[in-house]
Amino acid sequence: MLERLKGIISKYHMIPAGSRILVGISGGMDSVALLHALHALEPELDCTILAAHLNHGLRGAESDGDALFVEELCRQMKIPLVSVKKMIKELSMGENLENYARLERYRWLRQQKEVLDASYIAVAHHIQDQAETLLMHLLRGAGLEGLAAMSPVEDDLIRPFLFFNRQDIKSYCLEHDLMWREDSSNEEVAYRRNHIRRELMPRLAEYNPKIVETLSVTADICRQDNDFLNEVTLEQYNALAEPVAGGCRLPVEKLLRLHPALQRRLIKLAGTIVGGVISLTFQQVNTLLLLADNKELHLTADLYGYRRQGFLYLTRQAPKTPESKSWGSYPQPVPGEVFLPEADCRAKAYWGEMPKKPLPERGLLLALPRELSDGLYWRSRQPGDFLFPRGMTGRRKLKSLLIDCKIAVGSRDGVPLLLWRDEIVWVPGCRMGKLAAHFQGNALFVELFLNK
Question: In whole angstroms, what is the distance from residue 410 CA to residue 296 CA?
């Protein structure tokens, strides 16, 4: 087993020469075997082994007994030990106890890693743990990343036993006369993992006697595929993401050209880089991809997503309300042409015969009576603007008309308005005013040309 262990450590570059390895030890069979095996390989690996034990205080005297057992074991093996007791149930404040205890254990181990200047934290997860983890992720809903389950090396965490089964570990303990502690909570099926281990796995084994090995191989395949996709995603992020104050922005048009799988991964990666979010949810990512212009989403306490003028932003700062970009007036020559730079279009006026059928309401061509040729000009919207729509009684607020025409908030300042004297006579592509009522004979035509 030690030879196999050395091969796994070498294959995954788990323990570089000179490393200080902090082994998380509970006192159970798996962690006792891991501590003993790594200690036995200490000279060959050219590393220093340390131990850490967190007493959760969940099983009263039994938990305290585990702590005393670990202390004696480390004393006999002459391995430095750091041990602490935390009343996890009280600290959890009603949160899911199983999940909180797991997270608190890793938080504490990482604190001790920094204090002791350790290089890595070693934990004793094995092949059965891997199979159970995959099933837990699958049952709650997971993508490729979730089905990859646990990695042999994950940042500062190493799992040297991940390709060993419980029988391998038990045989090692018996061969080396190692004692261990039994955790009575492992019998409680109220915990989801225990339920999967004791109820679900035996049922699945009826269909596939090698279900544990099969699930482990599946996790390994998913992990390799996931690693490859992560590399591609990082390349795309480096190519597309532009730094902005407090975060980054992604060009929506280029983002949506990518395969949907890369779109989602790119946004999740941006959320991790910008806000330190472990993983945005599937719903959050999809909402961001469908976000309309000038809409925003408060993702977490410190992460915001919003869309502005063709870019999707992910920042740690709340988005500001878009500033108004009003522009001055441009007289419309009759006949003649004028360029409207803020709207990036040009307007041309000319004489012609009125068509028999009324012009389309939302087109870019307007017909007016000849007497309105003097006093026509263009400008952007202003507070309080309204229009007397053709074919309707009364007036309507310009804002309501733009909403009806589905003009995005960020685009409304760029909509050119044609006025005669002080009255709006046309909102191109949206509505005509009452002065454009249908008539016969010679007319003044105003046509808008977009520069695209």
Answer: 12
Query: Do residues 294 and 322 lie in contact, with contact meaning Cβ atoms separated by under 8 Å?
Result: yes
Task: Give the model's pLDDT for residue 184.
Answer: 75
Strand-strand pairing, 296-300 and 247-251: unpaired
Structure tokens at 279: 């993983």
pLDDT at residue 325, as a whole number: 63
Is the Cβ–Cβ distance between 237 and 269 less than 8 Å? yes
> What is the structure's pLDDT at 312?
94
d(CA 275, CA 54): 30
Strands 376-379 and 81-85: unpaired
pLDDT of residue 291: 87
pLDDT in the model for residue 31: 96
Please say whether the beta carbons of 41 and 6 come within 8 A.
yes
Lookup result for tokens 């909509």: 415
Burial (Cβ within 10 Å: 0-12, 13-18, ≥19) of residue 371: exposed
CA angle 276–280–285, rounded 5-degree value = 130
Q: Count CB neighbours of 101 within 10 A.
A: 21
Number of alpha carbons in the 13 Å side-chain half-sphere of residue 75? 7
Cβ atoms < 10 Å from Cβ of 92: 16
Instruction: Catalogue the E-assigned strands of 316-409.
Output: 330-331, 336-340, 345-353, 365-368, 376-379, 386-387, 396-397
Tokens of 67: 């702590």
**Coil, helix or strand for 291?**
coil
Nearest to 244 by CA among 322, 302, 319: 319
Blockwise average pLDDT, block size 10, the chain, 452 residues: 96 96 96 98 97 85 92 97 86 72 90 96 96 93 90 95 96 96 72 86 95 95 94 96 93 94 94 83 91 85 87 89 71 94 91 90 92 93 92 90 83 90 93 89 92 64
Both structure tokens of 137: 């992720």
How many Å apart are CA 117 and CA 99, to the nearest integer?
27
